[in-house]
Write a structure and sequence with these properties.
Length: 349
Amino acid sequence: MNDRFLRALARQPVDRTPIWIMRQAGRYLPEYRATRERAGDFLTLCKTPELACEVTLQPLARFPLDAAIVFSDILTIPDAMGLGLSLEEGVGPRFARPVRSRAAIRALAVPDPETDLRYVTDTVRLVKSELNNRVPLIGFAGSPWTLATYMVEGQSSRDFAIIKKLAYAEPGDLHVLLNTLSNAITLYLRAQIAAGADAIMIFDTWGGALSSAAYRSFSLDYMAKIVHDLKGTGIPIIVFTKGGGQWLESIAALGCAAVGLDWSTDIAKARSRVGDTVALQGNLDPAVMLTTPEIVAQHAREVLDAFGPGPGHIFNLGHGITPQVPPENVAALVETVHEYSRRYHQHAS
């Protein structure tokens, strides 16, 4: 297996910096759009293991990436809780039955990953088999706070007014919801690990919307619980809070193997703040990918220079790749990271 990604997560020597890309299976690839067309809609694509496997592998057929990430969505758990999820192109996710009352929160049941979410674990098994140990496979879930934002708001939100009101007015109710979600996520991630995931990523997409005290109480503490509950699996975990640079030390102290950085955090400063306690993943601004191969290469070199020599860096974007990115820019990024980073890993075997 090309284990560069797993070695970097463990802060072990590598021959070059590994790279994978958030949303690497996605709309910037024409072959993805063709498979999505065959599926009919996004949810059907997610829930058909053969098609989800196909799109998981598509970017690896094009680019020498160092890891695959299972094609799925963070909203699989709330969907399995019966909230009536719909995902419309250009509109985003919507729930027909948002969770806004104490009774609705207490009525939520933890889904069984091998029955209610079997399509995800089947996809993991299928991808794992097709990969045949070529590269590691990443499984993932949304953080409890991030899932709760969609479940309470009923859709994407700019100001999170409904869930923040709940957090401040009825914190006990929100804690019940977050506790249920953290139990569901732990089971779900355990099932992905049992199905063959080699690493796990927790996407805390909306943690950065919280105040410092609220972040600790409603996001960080629940991710800490999940990381602690998965400790016995021995599988490395990456925790990514978008907009979470100010809490870097707290995230690093969770016991995760790596902290994901968005593009607003200087990776050199991040490295000096956490030392060698965790690996760092990131953190090129996804907007750079809309330019030219030359500009992409220049900015990739700047990120690599900022991290500097030694192990513990997984190159990635600071958030997901966007649909308008030309595939040739991705090719330039992967090639630049692999070739230019060699100078920083001189003594690796």
